[in-house]
Each structure stands twice: as C-alpha cells, then as structure tokens.
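Incident log, entry 3
Record: SMI1/KNR4 family protein (187 residues)
Problem: checksum mismatch between cached and fresh output.
Input:
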Amino acid sequence: MLEIQAFEKLLEVVKQHKDFQFLTNDEKHVDESYLHNNDGLIQFYRKFDLQQVTIETGVSLISFIDYSNLKERNAEYHFSNLNENECIVFLEQSGGGEPILFNFADNTAIYAAYDVLDPFKIADNFIQFIEALTALADIVYNEYNIYEVYTNDDCDEIKPEFLPKMNSKLAPILGDNTANFMNYFYG
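Fresh output:
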C-alpha cells in the first residue's frame, strides 16, 4: 500500500539519526471498526510498532500514538466541531497535546489542533501528510542538524532562510494546505 511505502521513507530519514525498532514481528490484531474500516489505517497499525517513533521538527518533538494506546489517548481529546466517531488522533506533541488526526467526516483528510482550538486541515489525506512530514524531516535532520534551525542558542528566532526553504519543499506536496501545515509546525 502507498501509505506503508510513504511511512517507510519517513522512518528511513529519521532512522539515520536515531536507532529504534519500528516493524512488528507479527501483524498485530486491530479493531477494524474502530479504525473506520480504513484499509490504509488498518495496515499502518498492523505493521508498525509506533511506541518509539518520534519526529524532531526543529522546534518541537511529535510522537506517533501506538495502537495499544490509541483508544486511551483519543479519550482525552474532544473537539466541538467533530463528533468522537468522526476522527482518530494518531500523532501529538511529545507528552500530549496539539494533536494531529484523521478526520473521517472530511474523507480522511488530516487535521491538526492546538489544545483549545478546533482542528483545521493540514493535508488532503494520509499519504500527502506523510510525504510532507518526510520533506520536513529531511530538511530538519539533514540540512539543519535538527535544532540548528535557530539563529542562536536561546532558540528564540528561526533562521531567516529556513521557513522559505521549507515552504518551497512543501508547496508542491500540500498545495492549498501548505500555510496551515506550516502554521501548525512553525507558528
């Protein structure tokens, strides 16, 4: 499946900088109805052990939610513009908060939210989101050595060339969603 191939590319970028195991030894059993019978999501959670998968964005750390914790973590999120059965949070800031979610009410588009605000669209689908996250990780990890996106050690100002470079890589992937994606990750 294309989702699996896209995610494996992301993991290869990240794995260059930290060592972790991400493939399961055996396919995990998942509740397909909880995953909205979405083939891509079902295969994603069957194949990958996400407990240790984190992505450095240069300004924060985001963590994928492993299937074993999915229901528990999702119980902590409520959005006024989405019913509980319309979305699944699959990624969040390390330690919780600022979730990224599948929005099944919008044809499995990917949405993001700040803790107190309603979610907004950052990608049309999972593949587009993973490809954009891979481009982000490639730049952050391979061109800026993760936290060298800042102009100084106080980490209070992003280098002036960083955001335009990121934007130019993401725009062909995300199209109209580029501004929202950039706003979520870099304010």
